[in-house]
Amino acid sequence: MSEADGLRQRRPLRPQVVTDDDGQAPEAKDGSSFSGRVFRVTFLMLAVSLTVPLLGAMMLLESPIDPQPLSFKEPPLLLGVLHPNTKLRQAERLFENQLVGPESIAHIGDVMFTGTADGRVVKLENGEIETIARFGSGPCKTRDDEPVCGRPLGIRAGPNGTLFVADAYKGLFEVNPWKLKLLLSSETPIEGKNMSFVNDLTVTQDGRKIYFTDSSSKWQRRDYLLLVMEGTDDGRLLEYDTVTREVKVLLDQLRFPNGVQLSPAEDFVLVAETTMARIRRVYVSGLMKGGADLFVENMPGFPDNIRPSSSGGYWVGMSTIRPNPGFSMLDFLSERPWIKRMIFKLFSQETVMKFVPRYSLVLELSDSGAFRRSLHDPDGLVATYISEVHEHDGHLYLGSFRSPFLCRLSLQAV
Q1: Residue 64 CB partners (closer than 8 Å, separation 6+)
Q2: What does the DSSP assignment read for 116-160?
Q3: Does the CA dihedral 302-308-310-311 come out positive or negative?
Q4: Cα–chain-centroid distance for residue 239?
Q5: DSSP summary character for residue 232
Q6: pLDDT at position 290, please?
Q7: Of 251, 255, 291, 296, which sits most exposed with the smallest number of CB within 10 A?
Q8: Alpha-carbon distances of 180 from 190, 208, 295, rounded to whole Å
């Protein structure tokens, strides 16, 4: 035997792979591959069935808004007097689930008055609610009923125990409890434009002149979110003379003019321009009459009503803020109108509102517009959807444009 033959005999045996004689392994492999293909095809068909209608809706549906790009400065840092706190959570809720949307508040003596979402002006006294005026009629259950029912917004106490009320759909009224007088109908065109969204008002001490806002000639109150998102600049500040019944436009091309407040000397009117997160000042008497400037710009939130504070400054209510540090959705969307169009093609206003973070903020301004102090309720746990801060007898009364209650906060507690 040669050496080569010996090595061949000593070569180790290779292991044998034993398979079933019927060849099941290849078939199992083919079956697994077939199942994977079925899954991929099914998933692809499902994705297409969802995506194609969505893209079709985006292409074919019309957006209710035609927004233009807006530019904002970086929001102010929430530091110093703006530092977040929970002081608003010390407020108590009043008349919970007994009224809805007490937007604005006024006192005559110790008796409180407000307007509600179902079109009423009510008196609140000794824990009781009494209806004293109604501007419309019919069932008042949804926002689509508002044009018929009316929607009282700004309310002020005038001389001789009367109330002046701005109704979003009906116009300006004087209410001498249980007696109703229409001062200016919203159907009256002012300089060729309709008043579609009468909002807030402020009255001179003698009751002769009323300064009020018409937030838009296009959008009604029930579509206020569309007004904000579109950034429409068709709002106006107006003056109504109760003696001559003349109406003047003091300032136009405003983006959602909202709350208004006369200065203590009645030489200027402040007007909140909600969409732009600022407050404008319009001079109505004195050497600067007819002039206008910015009172506060780049606010930490979107201002609603403005009311006087006992310190000589002003209270401003906000239901949505521009967090910094943090992410402001409205600031982000302001320069991306195409996203706004897509959102409102696919979702209703009520659906969009559910995604707006709840953050209640009350800001006190000095008489020169400086930030004096701030009261917060992060997440809106107690005070929600704040529209107004009305000071009376050592307390702040917090109005709301949609909550089923109003709040009261002792100033001594904060």
Answers
A1: 226, 344
A2: -TTSEEEEEETTEEEEEEES--S---SGGGHHHH--EEEEEE-GG
A3: positive
A4: 25
A5: -
A6: 96
A7: 291
A8: 23, 17, 35
Task: State the Cα–Cα distance between residues 222 and 202, nearest whole angstrom.
Answer: 22
Can you give the three-state secondary structure of 302-352, one letter per residue? EEEEEEECCCCCEEEEEEEECCCCCCCHHHHHHCCHHHHHHHHHHCCHHHH
Q: Specify the pLDDT at position 60.
A: 72
Backbone angles phi, psi at 226, to 5 degrees: -65, -35
Are 122 and 130 a contacting pair, CB within 8 Å? yes
Which of these, 153, 93, 41, lies nearest to 383 by C-alpha position?
Answer: 93
Residue 288 confidence (pLDDT): 96
> Following CA atoms 321, 327, 329, 330 in sequence, which dihedral angle do they give, to the nearest 10 degrees?
50
Q: Which two tokens stand for residue 330?
A: 């409205």
**Can you tell me whether residue 365 is helix, strand or coil?**
strand
Q: What rounded mean pLDDT belongs to the chain?
A: 90
Cα–Cα distance measured from residue 388 to residue 84, given in angstroms and rounded to the nearest whole number:
19
| pTM, two decimal places | 0.86
Question: pLDDT per residue over 98-117, tens digit each?
Answer: 999 999 999 999 999 999 99
Residue pair 10/4 in contact by the 8 Å Cβ criterion: no
pLDDT in tens, 278-308: 999 999 999 999 999 999 999 999 999 999 9
Residues 243 and 204: their CA atoms lie apart, in Å, by 13
- Lowest mean pLDDT: which of 50-54, 61-65, 215-219? 50-54
Helix (H) or strand (E) holding 226: helix 224-230
Residue 406's pLDDT band (cuts 50, 70, 90): very high
> For the segment 201-223, what is each residue's pLDDT rounded down to a tens digit?
999 999 999 999 999 999 999 99
Q: What are the residues facing 396 on neighbouring strands?
A: 391, 409
Q: Is 50 in a helix, a strand, or coil?
A: helix
Helices 337-346 and 24-60 sit at what angle, rounded to 10 degrees?
A: 100
Side by side, the strands of the sheet bearing 257-262 are 257-262, 268-273, 278-283, 292-296
pLDDT confidence of residue 15: 45
